[in-house]
Fold:
Amino acid sequence: MDFIVEKDPGLIPQVLSKILDSCVNGVTLADPDQTDLPLVYVNKAFENITGYSQEETLGKNCRFLQGTEREQGEIDQLREAIKNKKPVEVTLRNYRKNGELFFNHLVMTPLFDSNGNVLYFLGVQYDQTRQIRADEEIKKLNKRLEALKN
Structure:
């Protein structure tokens, strides 16, 4: 479905912003026409997940969330997808403003104009920390059960 922007060019961005701010997942837009692919939009859920405000994130590449953990294979997948203008889905080890580790399940999709040029890279972030920690706990418990059987 396409919006008819001519109907009210000021209303559509306001409505979309309110919709995106009501999402439970983080939503970001990065601008490929600017140096280092900076964030130009982050929604409230992104702020809640990361602890960083819009003022602290806009204009920065979101790699700052990686802290010192730059040697993740998923980062290479992300770079390759950006280079080739392809969608990608990865889970990254990221850090909140308070330094706490969280597992960021990122779905990154290039958004194209009618001429096939990338306008933005859309990022949708889901904090998978609880799920990953629960899975790790289940693995530990299963190992303990196995050890008790032997």
